[in-house]
Amino acid sequence: MKLKDINDKVNPRFFEKHQRSIYKSLEDKHTTIEEIDSEDPLNSKMILNMGPQHPATHGVLRLILQLRGELIEKTKIDIGYLHRGVEKIAENKTYQEFMPYTDRMDYLSPYSNNVALCTAVEKLAEVDVPERAQYIRMICCELARISSHLLWLGTMVMDAGAISFFIWTFREREKIYDIFDEVAGHRFTVSHSRIGGVASDFTDEAVARIKEFVETFPQELKDWHKLLDRNRLFIDRNEDVGIVKTEDALDIGATGPVLRAAGYAVDQRIINPYLQYDKVDFEVPTRLEGDNLARYFVRMEEMGESIKIIQQCFDKMPKGPVRTNNAKQAYPSKDEVYYSMEGMIHDFMMTDTGICPPAGKEVYHAVEAPKGELGYYIQSDGTGHPWRLKVNAPSFRNLQVLENILDGEMVADTVVIIGGVDPVMGEADK
Amino acid sequence: MSLNLNETEQAVVDGLSDKFSDDLIEVYQSCDHTYIRMEADNIVDICRYLKTEQHFIFLCDILGTDRYTSDERFEVIYNMMNLRTQDRIFIKIRVEEENPVVHSVTSVWKSASWYEREVYDMFGVRFEEHPDLRRIFMPEDFEYFPLRKEFPLLGIPGSIALPDTTPDTE
């Protein structure tokens, strides 16, 4: 298909230059194949524009597919529809002020993002975090992982055709939301982690709810395994679909469950233990096939491992403070703010200038978010604002994988593959 | 500041100072990670050497920074990982403000494609021999590079004026 034909047909009206360049780029991909196929007497080729408002693309993802019959010949992905410039915003905010913005990045697991930023800043400014706070963070991060994987499971199985499953996973997610409501005071964007610790300790109610969830959830998980693991329809729909080859996985930049399903046990919790992950015992599930079914098994097993981690955290969690007591590094407690002059001044100083890491220092710290390696690179110039803050977002990297693996698949499988890769556009578009 | 390098990092520094002694500018450490600053000219060879000889097969990220200085304004940082020893290393190169061009490393790691597009989109650093160098977040019609320090936080230069902050003025 020639660029002129495409332009005649689609006739873009908004951001013309942008539209034209993306169709041009689609035409240029694998140009050698293009020339062999230039004869197309049956006219079976077409350009399918999917998104950005397609309900099954999980956000504002836009795919431009060139089809030959039902086969996808080549794909280009257009992202940026949710670009809010958070890196620019970060340069104009104090470190603590920026923290709530991280909730809006990967909005399916906000707690992991809070922790990723806070641990990076703590490493940069050499802030010690009390052990209890670290365990609280770990428990909540694992709950966030389960919550994110539950959404993936519900929508992915729904994309494959089973509607009722979505409702069951959302019932469990609702329980996690209730837990976060009790822990942090918010259901969705929690913003509970603080630089130097967490905002508040667990209440008895919260502990009871988490423990109840940890006890009941494995049974649910078992039921879902029973329903899907040997389900002929589900396997036929997912097996050998969207394969990330083991030899390609690293080269095309896969991360998280997508990489682990292709055979590499890369998990930041193991290779670079942060918080107290070196004190708990858990496995990193991997598969070799790299297809959608392998990604399903990896994520399902990860949820089981998360439950194991939460149980161990409760056994090991000591009593004590949940925020560092150094008023130059973290917000003082509200008791101090309301009843002492120093507390008031420190609270004002933290809000006004915030924590000032030494000039010229830089840090990269990565955590294992549900989607993969979530890294924060921060460069400090000695003031309360970062000079440069870069988010290494796992969804961004996995979308690049998606662009590579869609070529040669069937068009009907597109939605299932997107579901299996599990991108979140808030994070990919920054 | 004395360096505290582990075995892999030592091997990288030794290897680079052996093979690319003219390009090596400085080695320093910050917060447990080692940063190596190199000349920009041979970046493709350096990356290929690190990938094939030192087993840095996993490119995690490429990021740009704006140093806002008169010479060598932009910095491009390559964040790569050695999966055998699970060590991370950062290679830095600097480019001038006038005509910032860097050789693309997509021939070494395929995943560099989107990372380089992001650097181009945000800072205007162009990558030579990149297979598909387009903007990634902003539309092609956008004329500015938003993460450069002179780009304002609010409003686009030459675009519609921002609303008045004082409602009473005419």
Automatic annotation (TrEMBL), chain A:
Protein's job: NDH-1 shuttles electrons from NADH, via FMN and iron-sulfur (Fe-S) centers, to quinones in the respiratory chain. The immediate electron acceptor for the enzyme in this species is believed to be ubiquinone. Couples the redox reaction to proton translocation (for every two electrons transferred, four hydrogen ions are translocated across the cytoplasmic membrane), and thus conserves the redox energy in a proton gradient.
Subunit: NDH-1 is composed of 14 different subunits. Subunits NuoB, C, D, E, F, and G constitute the peripheral sector of the complex.
Record-stated family: Belongs to the complex I 49 kDa subunit family.
HAMAP family named among the record's database cross-references: NDH1_NuoD
GO CC, alphabetical: plasma membrane
Protein name in UniProt: NADH-quinone oxidoreductase subunit D
NADH-quinone oxidoreductase subunit D domain: residues covered: 159-430
EC number, UniProt record: 7.1.1.-
Reactions mediated catalytically: a quinone + NADH + 5 H(+)(in) = a quinol + NAD(+) + 4 H(+)(out)
Topology in the lipid bilayer: Peripheral membrane protein
GO MF annotation list: NAD binding; NADH dehydrogenase (quinone) (non-electrogenic) activity; quinone binding
From TrEMBL, chain B:
InterPro entries: NADH_DH_suC (IPR010218), NADH_quin_OxRdtase_su_C/D-like (IPR037232), NADH_UbQ_OxRdtase_30kDa_su (IPR001268)
Superkingdom of this protein's organism: Bacteria
Top-tier EC class: translocase
Places the protein is found: Cell membrane
Alphabetically ordered keywords of this record: Cell membrane, Membrane, NAD, Quinone, Translocase, Transport, Ubiquinone
Keyword Cell membrane among record annotations: yes
Residue ranges occupied by any NADH:ubiquinone oxidoreductase 30kDa subunit domain in the UniProt entry: 37-153
Coiled coil location: none
Topology of this chain in the membrane: Peripheral membrane protein
Position of the signal peptide: none
Matching NCBIfam families: NuoC_fam
Family per similarity comment: Belongs to the complex I 30 kDa subunit family.
UniProt-recorded name of the protein: NADH-quinone oxidoreductase subunit C
Source species of the chain: Gracilimonas mengyeensis
